Amino acid sequence: MARMTSSDRPLLNRRLAEFGTTVFAEMSALALRTGAINLGQGFPDTDGPEEVREAAVRALRDGRGNQYPPGPGVPELRTAVAAHQQRRYGLSVDPDTEVLVTAGATEAIAASLLALVEPGDEVIALEPYYDSYAACIAMAGGTRVPVTLRPGEGRFRLDLDELRDAVTDRTRLLLINTPHNPTGTVLTREELASIAELAVERDLLVMTDEVYEHLVFDDAEHIPLASFPGMRDRTVTISSAGKTFSFTGWKVGWITASPELVTAVRSAKQYLTYVSAGPFQYAVAEALALPESYFTDFRADMLAKRDVLAAGLEKAGLTVYRPSGTYFITADIRPLGETDGIAFCRALPERAGVVAIPTAVFYDHQEMGAPFVRFAFCKRRQVLEEAAARLRSAGTRRPSTRTSAGGDQRPTDPSRTR
Questions:
Q1: What is the distance between the alpha carbons of residues 395 and 45, in angstroms, rounded to a whole number?
Q2: Is the overall model pTM greater than 0.85, yes or no?
Q3: Which of these, 264, 163, 255, lies nearest to 208 by C-alpha position?
Q4: Which of 5-19, 58-72, 248-262, 389-403 has the lowest mean pLDDT?
Q5: Contact criterion met (CB below 8 Å) for 283 and 52
Q6: How far apart are CA 401 and CA 197, in angstroms?
């Protein structure tokens, strides 16, 4: 029983009362107990480029970043971020006034929402969504308004009419994630143009989570929303080094935005971590300047891994939505005669020796995500091949309906891996 104060008031802030223990603790425990391959949490099982790791070692040895770095981030990284935006997207960014370095994208999300949202403001987010969105909106006192991506024609699609209808006089901010975790959808130029028109028409702020910007496949194209007419001064663009360079533990992220928006976000960020990851900032500055061949090879490697896992899931009898971006695959379990992804994922480690995540935990409307399961393919190819083989061999057997020690309690939190 939770300890109570003399007034019997719960210790946990009521704004966070809905956020319980993450499902990832349960799934990781199942992986350890059963020896299952863990394709649940989204982090690579190998490190990124050796030259980037050595750049961090050099910075440590040279005494760069071992003490507090500048609050906005080291100049070298801010300059590298600005150069990256110009080189890739033609966006001109002032490294001194329009870049802010954060403790990963998660802090960028938190600081932006705490800075820009007040109690009573509505924030529209695409569901399924990254869990920190919900928690940070709650901490800011805002009201979360989900707009659901629905499967169709091989991908999860945004209903632009539904998005427009969700905007009210209380809407303060649109929170857009593309490439989208967990569905792998990459919003098209036409979809982004419509979002931009809506934001301008209703005078809305926009926050875009673009941490998977370098992981787009097939014919998909990542286009920053800030590049559309009228969006430059109303958009906070968020990215990070973890997903692109496979150093998720370094927690180096950043925002780019107008000077006014950067100033607002920095006002909140300075009371969170203040600064972080000093030596790693210098290394990430060098990483952003890697030759184009690195990014091309990185995408090609992840594409091959996507196809290995997707083929295994299909042969196991699942309906697979091959992602156009990110390193997650969503699969539908209904062809196996199952409808409850949570029960399915709890049984899967014993059934097939593989751990996945039930997508329902990414939804406000959990019934919308009930039959979907998310797998991560950011693992070594031989690990994915073994997982695919296990899934194929177990694909025709219905999973056990036993639950874990957690009983029937529905988990509420998705991944905290940005």
A1: 25
A2: yes
A3: 255
A4: 389-403
A5: yes
A6: 48
